[in-house]
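Q: How do we represent a protein-ligand complex in a form that can be generated token by token?
A: Start from the inputs.
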Amino acid sequence: MIYARPPIAAMKGYVPGAQPDPSQKYIKLNSNENPYPPSPRVKEILQRLNYDDLRIYPDPLALELREKLGRLYGFPANQIICGNGSDDILNIIIRTFAQPGEAIGFYEPTFPLYRVQGVIHGVQNLAVPLADPFDRPPAPPAQAKVFFLPNPNSPVGFMYPLSLVRSLARQVQGVFVVDEAYAEFSPENALGLVGEMENVIVTRTVSKSYSLAGVRLGYAIGSEPLIREMFKVKDPFNVNRLTQAVVAAALEDQDYFRKNIAAVAETREWFTAEARTLGYRIIPSQGNFVFPRPPEKGRGVRFFQSLFDRKVLTRFYDEEGLRDGVRMTIGTPEDMRITLQVMKDILKIF
Ligand SMILES: *Cc1c(COP(=O)(O)O)cnc(C)c1O
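Then emit the structure tokens for the protein with pyridoxal-5'-phosphate bound:
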């Protein structure tokens, strides 16, 4: 007897990056986590939190946090909504703006969660393939009620300039979502479009840029009418009390944040140049990860496995356009030095 709804029973479900036992000593470059610890202010706030407060529900509106984000980016709190990670935000977006049976859209390669969430919600997924090297996107499907553009792209790392994002956003009738999970590692972002166009939503997360993947906080910034509707859809207490306090503290330490981001970007540029010298092909990345491809095509699985056997954990995507390489998070300079040495050694066996 199958109890699940047919689309659920038929799908594989989203597969997150493996989280190996820390005693296994992998160099963990598979989930785009930040290699540096969060701000010391996070440690302080954790020590000061009153455990008795945990009896009480968190603020359902996360108002203090939204006001803080608003001051940081120049938006009123009523244009911001917080979620339990940006995964939660993406889910709220689909459920708010697309009716089951209607369509959502995205280019491929892309972040695989959009498709999975689309299936769960019973919408049609319109996947528009991008031709390698991915820099000339065709028009997004006009009938999509929601179109997702991860910018910088995941899992490849390339980034579309703001002028291109603007012209793509103008071509959809529905909501145009710029998923900026990695925008803090790049020189540009699309927040300016939110003021220009009522159908643009920018989503962000503290998972990567603030080293807080473990606390689960994402947010969306958009025009007030869109954000207002999203508030009706979200779970009432979707951001817990600890997360609201921890993220508020982390946001206050902008110096630490900037240094952290600069360190990751510097390592990324150095690593990219070195890997290319070895013969790997890498499209320039604006995220905290790269997508190196060995010189010969179709070697992604072997590349992944060879790295894995030498304790370097990366991500292989068995998908069109992605089978030549792996996605590799930028770790500390030491992590990446070791990884480069491994990449040099294994080139001989390809
Ligand atoms: C990591 C990631 C997310 C999810 O971020 P969380 O806030 O950890 O849920 C969303 N979109 C893209 C493109 C990502 O890479």
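The CA atoms of residues 66 and 77 lie 5 Å apart. The pocket of pyridoxal-5'-phosphate is lined by residues 32, 85-87, 111, 150, 154, 179, 181, 205, 207, 213, 218 (CB under 6 Å).
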